Amino acid sequence: MRIFINGTFDILHMGHLAMLNFAKSLGSSVNVAIDSDARVKRLKGSSRPINNQMERMSLLMNIKAVDDVCIFDTDEELVELIKNHDIMIKGSDYKDKPIIGSDFIEIQFFDRINEYSTTNKIQDIISGG
Fold this sequence. Notes:
single chain; 37% helix; alpha/beta; Rossmann fold; globular
């Protein structure tokens, strides 16, 4: 089984690692697609990403559960990447949201570990916590 995960992965945290390890337990390969820096700025604002796309890609490539990482900039590019896989993993926070590719790929949800999120990590850094 070819497993697909996409996201920003701006500041890696334990929640990301748990999801990537879960994905690896389901298949022979885990491919991660990350949003380009330009796409992150469009979706999350000019102060993001914290880590640029090459840093994020390099960090992910050094995780045992990850077999390949690529960068995408548009919904159309994301659809083309998804088509080559059997299962897509999304965090449980996406259960009631539209998911690109859900009409042609099996979606499995990973129960999000509530205390772990990039937004929370950024807030901790800002507040000195």
